[in-house]
């Protein structure tokens, strides 16, 4: 199916498109519709970004009709993971989002939450603790609600990419961070994807989000996509599931795939 038709399975839908351009068109509408819905219901829209190709795939959102149709003033922006580098570094997920998205829309700057960067070996741990503290303050201010079910903060929308090894955020196979059930934000100093020092939301926070979009395009992710959506078993030389297999959303997890990523479906 290459028309974006929706196949509902539990709290998960898979939307398959022919090209990456078709994914970009559908993703913009999906995000704008959720923005309208959440702002109507709760007066704000909390959005969590990833790095990688996601920001480019969001490109239609900064074009008409969304550019002037979305109420950007109600948006709050967070990062599901960030490389621990200065914010103006070419490796920074903040810079990527700033250049491709945030600089083009009118989200108030105090509603954008980049990491606080500190150089040196303590930088990753500092950035993770600091980010978690800032999230806890937003819970106190009632900007982020806490889930009565999980005890973790509820974000309205999380936009995730996936690597060929099945990683999401900076939760990688063969790294302990994917098993953290206590922290909201943790850090990694030996990420297999460069650069090595990063912070990342943990799975309990990711899976407490209301809506999650897995935005996955390209042939190199087709095997991990196949494992996540079809075979469930894998031959990646690991014990246990791939990180992506642990993703679920409170309301709905929506996969956006192009024909290449869906090649093995
Ligand atoms: O720091 C990063 O690189 C990201 O936040 C990471 O989690 C990304 O979302 C995936 O690696 C997918 O990356 P691509 O979209 O580039 O395949």
UniProtKB/TrEMBL annotation:
Location of the Glucosamine/galactosamine-6-phosphate isomerase domain: 19-248
Catalytic activity, EC: 3.1.1.31
CDD domains: 6PGL (cd01400)
SUPFAM superfamilies the UniProt entry points to: NagB/RpiA/CoA transferase-like
Catalytic activity: 6-phospho-D-glucono-1,5-lactone + H2O = 6-phospho-D-gluconate + H(+)
Pathway it works in: Carbohydrate degradation; pentose phosphate pathway
Parts of the chain that traverse the membrane: none
UniProt record similarity statement: Belongs to the glucosamine/galactosamine-6-phosphate isomerase family. 6-phosphogluconolactonase subfamily.
Protein name, as recorded: Probable 6-phosphogluconolactonase
UniProt organism field: Ilex paraguariensis (yerba mate)
